[in-house]
Amino acid sequence: MKAIIFLLPSRFRGDDIFNKYNERILMKIPEDGKLLRIFIGEQDKWQGKPLCDEIIFLARRKGMAGATAIKGFMGYGCKSHMHTAKLLRLSEDLPIIIEIVDSEEKINEFLPLIDEMVKEGLITLEKANIVMYRAAS
Fold it and tell me: Has residue 8 been placed in a domain?
């Protein structure tokens, strides 16, 4: 069996985050957290770069507990324009949902940053009951 190794630019690697004292930062979330959902399009940009990537990278730089981007295969937004990945109708702007879970305080600090970035889309916030948040050592 051959192993395939992909080398990614440093901004894509899962490098640990360290504080100014070079101590590894462990992400922690209180049991009562918040779930931030950001609905955008695949083609949306921020300063010439994919908006989805930039939001995820910003969340990581800000020490958010975690962020996930989910690509949809069909959807529509406030303009009622249908975006779909069906074979007969290829879309170049499929829906993307970014989910970020963290404490209410950290989410509230993060909201003004993404408000500036998201020019078109939907942002929702809801209560999240954190059942488990851990990684293997």
Answer: no
